[in-house]
Amino acid sequence: MKMATLSRPYPKVGGLESAGGSASPSSIARMRGWLAAWLPAIPLLLLVSTCLIAPVVVLVWQSFTGMGETGLSLDLWFRVLGQRANQDAILTSLLLAASCATVTLAIGAPLAWMISRMLRGSRAFWLGLLNVAANFGGIGLAFAYMATIGSVGMLTLMVQGLGLPFEAPREGSLPALLMAYEYTNVPLFVLLTIPAMSILRDDWWEAAQVAAATRLVFWRRIGVPILAPFLMAGWLLIFTWTLGIYGIAYGLAGQSGATAVHLITLQIGSALQSDVLLGPGRAAILAVVLMLFATTSLILYRMILRRALRWL
Amino acid sequence: MSGVSMVGVTKTYGQVKALDHVSVDVCEGELLALLGPSGCGKTTLLRCVAGLERPDRGSVEIGELDVTGVPTRDRPIGMVFQNYALFPNLTVRQNIAFPLEVRHKVRREIDARVDELLELVHLTDQADRYPKQISGGQAQRCALGRALAPNPEVLLLDEPLSALDALVRGRLRDEIRRIQQLVGITAIYVTHDQSEAMAIADRVAVMNAGRVEQVAAPADLYELPATQFSAKFVGSRNAVELAVHDGRVGIPGSFHIEAPSGSNGHALAFFRPEDVVVSRGADGPGMAARVELKVFLGATTRLHLIGDADGQPIAIFGDLPSRQARLIDEGEMVRVDVDPSHVHAFPI
Amino acid sequence: MAVNPILTATGQRAAGGVRLSRTARYLFFGAVLLYFCVPMAAVLIYSFATRWTANVLPDGYTLEWWQATVANPRIQSAFSTSIALATLTAIIDIAVVVPAAYWSRVRNARIRPVVEVAAAVPFALPYVVIAFGLMQFSGVVVPQYQGTFALLVAGHAAIAFPFVYWAVDGAMAAAGIERLSETAEACGASPFQTLRRVVLPNISPGLVTGGLLSFAASFGEFAMAQIIGRGLDTVPLWSAEMIRSYTDTAGSYNRLAVVTLLTFAVLFVLSAVVVYWNRGQTVRLLPGGVASDKGGGR
Questions:
Q1: Which of B159, B303, C186, C275 is 20 to 30 Å from A221 at the Cα level?
Q2: Is ipTM > 0.90 here?
Q3: CA angle, corner C19, sides to C16 and C23, nearest 5?
Q4: Which chain B residues touch A223 with a CB distance below 8 Å?
Q5: HEC-encoded secondary structure of A245-266
């Protein structure tokens, strides 16, 4: 018995319009339904699973199995984490990421606030500028840093020429990396937190004024409690992002050679390039360590945001 | 309690004159409504009293105090905003306590006062909820409590009911009026809804394009509109364009009144639908008209009538009690009459 | 009445903020502007310099580096590789993301959480790590593709897709794409027709923004190019080689300066287009959970 059907373009998820009789086996029907629900997303899911998820899984697996050894073991973990160079790299990366995020917060928060209050025209200008600066990383930035405050950089020579005793931070040292990172991190932070700034409504400030509050009181009791979680979330994002920076560090560290700081990302890179035998194993462990930090960070990030939005 | 006095307040934004030499007085304990369409300047005027805007010219006095240059936080005011403006990270209780805490009152005093206010606005059960967890009506009541907490001289309300559902609006409107009268506080109430203004105000100031058209008690405003704008804006009315003959305007067969001064050839006559007397049958007083449409509005029915004046067809609305209107059919010819004392004419 | 930012009589925005005086504000912004422009100025001067080691300004100026760089076949090929790579990345990302985002809004809401978790991966994990993993994985599954252009494109597409997703998703939200689709369906349009004539035109800002962001990400990407694209030559790879030459041999730094400026110019144009297309509104770069589509913005 043929059911009268409207000419629908496509069936909805969950239900199934069977134009035929009721004799179709339910498994085929279920698969058709599933396909209809997921088909357009499949290319993306394919790309993501092969190029993002699978690599991550492979790395985690390899960190436990070691290169070619049978069975899961923590052997490689102990060996790699016991090495001084690796421990250095982990600690230094964490230190760099934390200090970078803090400096970024200190500069970026007021900047984001002021820009969010600007009128359309100048705001567009600053957003454009920040966009460029946020995307400008990697080797180019490392070079620009060198040319400016490197040992023979323009500013260095200028200041020294004025007679002031100025020792430029050695490229590849922690302060140098910090300064260079700020170039992309501050704009990134600002771009990420500007949407949050507009959460503070004008009429809250007006209501506070009517209630006889000063600016200080407003910020202390209303502004900061509301914005703080978003700023912390921004801090966490920059922290996570900084842990993973490679290009800039590569460019700057190349200058100092063996005396450069050890960073996890650099170690991974050099392990892959120089050490064909043990390299991949070491790199896998370090990569998983990075993954752990990043995942923890991201979980914290989500938790903070959920808390932040409980009032809004 | 003090009255408020606004003298010659002027405010310009670039090319736009938001307020043009506005002078209004609010008596002690009175609720004055500022009524007008969007852009008429009513909100700007309120914000000038609040200190959130600074007038280019003119002065604002609260009681004996000239507050024109005084910053908002030093003015003895309380304000209720259209979108409640409750601090989202504070509970209802903390919101109401905020103005008192800012003024460094003693804890015991604050708690007592907050409880008193929670009682006043009927929010005792919601005291420990956050703004996100309460309804619009409750939020606005909390805002009212917060505004009244520091015992201000003047209460300012900026379209407090606009963001609420229609059902909640009427009840809250009456609540606000009840509380205002109970506390005896001077209040300025901004709204674009004329029925709302008429329902609660002691006096209404009708504003248009930065100017005050008329200030009068609601009943007077309704009966005796002083300007064409007041007539059009307040209450539903018929507005009929009529030719001036010998210094008089009128509908032949119905009313004739003196033409308003300044009219050249034509005048606009205003009269209310409920003042239109409709009688059945072809003879009787009034102008002949045909019933075009009947609209049932509950207690009354509105008749759309098409008549003839000087050869020109005119459209008139007449309101009848529904029981009477039931007897009249659409398409029927009736006679339409208006008492001249109910007609106000303005020059075009 | 909308809460409009109104100018007070002093011309300053009446917002609760740390009210710095006008001069303090100008100083702050001036310092920030300087911080961003000075390095670029240094690079610019470097690109025109003959020798520049000891003095504040170079010994002499020349156009030879610009001429040499632009004419250099290796650099030309690096640029064309990078541009091709970035363009393909953008195209693939758009082609892959738009249907998924559309379907997750219109038919199957369960797609969303899956995609959002996937979108967090390139942000949480450094590209180095992903690149390394991809190398290992491809070594096991498709070893013949290792070191090829195709694999690098796939890798770039994977790490750049979040930019496209957030931009497109935001544009769909802003356009109210669910309602538009229902209306189109009610008018009798097929899914393809709906996509082509209703959806795509209405999300064009998101497409442009997302496409340009993914282009920029791919163009400047170094880690993955180094690890996966071993046999290839992209602009960042070339730059890395130049910067690691310890002595300023044969003007490698000068050439690097030129290339850096060219890269910067590309980024600048892209960013300008992105900002222009969005007319000064903030672009949603991340899932902040922040109210950018709750009408919180101005």
A1: B159
A2: no
A3: 150
A4: none
A5: CCHHHHHHHHHHHHHCCCCHHH
Of B43, B52, B54, the CB nearest to C1: B43
Q: How many beta carbons lie within 10 A of that of residue C121, not counting itself? A: 24
Positions of E strands within B70-195: 77-80, 154-158, 186-191
Mean of all residue pLDDT scores within chain B: 91
A210 vs B50, B88, B89: nearest CB: B50
Residue A149 zone, left/alpha/beta (φ > 0; ψ -120 to 50; rest): alpha
Tell the residue number behind the tokens 């409980």, with chain if given.
A310
Quick one: pLDDT at residue C289?
38
The residue segments making up the domain with residue A295 are: 84-141+170-311
Q: Of B52, B54, B159, which is closest to C1 when you measure between CB atoms? A: B159
Query: Does some domain include residue A60?
Result: no
Assign C55 a pLDDT band (cuts: 50, 70, 90): low
Task: Give the nearest partner residue to B52 out of C1, C7, C14, using CB atoms.
Answer: C14
Q: What is the pLDDT of residues C211-241, one digit of tens each?
A: 988 998 899 888 888 888 777 888 888 888 8
Confirm or reject contact between A217 and chain B (CB < 8 A). Answer: yes
- Rounded to two decimals, the pTM is 0.80
Q: Cβ A127–C54 below 8 Å, yes or no?
A: no
| Per-residue DSSP letter, C250 | G
Positive or negative torsion for Cα B85, B89, B90, B92: positive
Going across the sheet that includes B16-26, the strands are: B16-26, B4-13, B57-62, B65-66
Min Cα–Cα distance to chain B from A308, Å:
10
- Name C100's bridge partners: none
Specify whether the backbone of B286 is left (phi greater than 0), alpha (psi in -120 to 50) or beta. Answer: left
Inside any domain, residue A195: yes
**Can you tell me the distance from the alpha carbon of B238 to that of C192, in angstroms, rounded to the nearest whole number?**
54
Whether residues A247 and C268 touch (CB distance < 8 A) is answered with no
Tokens of B114: 């907050």
Q: Which CATH superfamily is domain C73-293 in?
A: MetI-like (1.10.3720.10)
Q: Are A242 and A185 in contact (CB under 8 A)?
A: yes
Give the CATH number, domain containing residue A222: 1.10.3720.10
Work out the minimum CA distance from B5 to partner chain A, whole angstroms: 19
Cα B300 from chain centroid (whole Å): 23
> Residue B205's closest CA among B193, B219, B221?
B221
Q: How many domains does chain A have?
A: 1
C-alpha distance from B21 to closest chain C C-alpha (Å):
17
Q: What amino acid occupies position B149?
A: A
Secondary structure letter of residue C49 according to DSSP: B
Task: Report yes or no: B51 at the A interface, CB cutoff 8 Å.
Answer: yes
- Interface check for A43 against chain C (CB to CB < 8 A): the answer is yes
| pLDDT tens column, C73-131 | 888 888 999 999 999 999 999 999 999 999 998 888 888 999 988 988 888 788 888 88
Interface-testing mutation among B52, B75, B89, with chain A (most A C-beta atoms within 10 A): B89
Q: Would you say residue A42 lies in a domain?
A: no
Give the DSSP H or E segment for B257: strand B256-258
> Chains with 3 or more CB pairs closer than 8 angstroms to C?
A, B
Are C1 and B158 within 8 A, CB to CB? yes
CB atoms within 10 A of CB A65: 17
A94 domain residue, yes or no: yes
Q: Average pLDDT for residues B123-135, to the nearest whole number?
A: 95
Closest partner residue to A143 among C154, C256, C284, by Cβ?
A: C256
Give me the pLDDT at residue A287, please: 85
Return left, alpha or beta for C125; rule: phi > 0 is left, psi -120 to 50 is alpha, else beta. beta
> Where does the pLDDT of residue A257 fall: very low under 50, low under 70, confident under 90, or very high at 90 and above?
low
| Whether pLDDT at A20 is above 70 | no
Question: B99: distance to nearest CA of chain A, Å?
Answer: 5
The answer to whether A203 faces chain B, any CB pair under 8 Å, is yes
The answer to whether A238 and A101 have CB atoms below 8 angstroms apart is yes
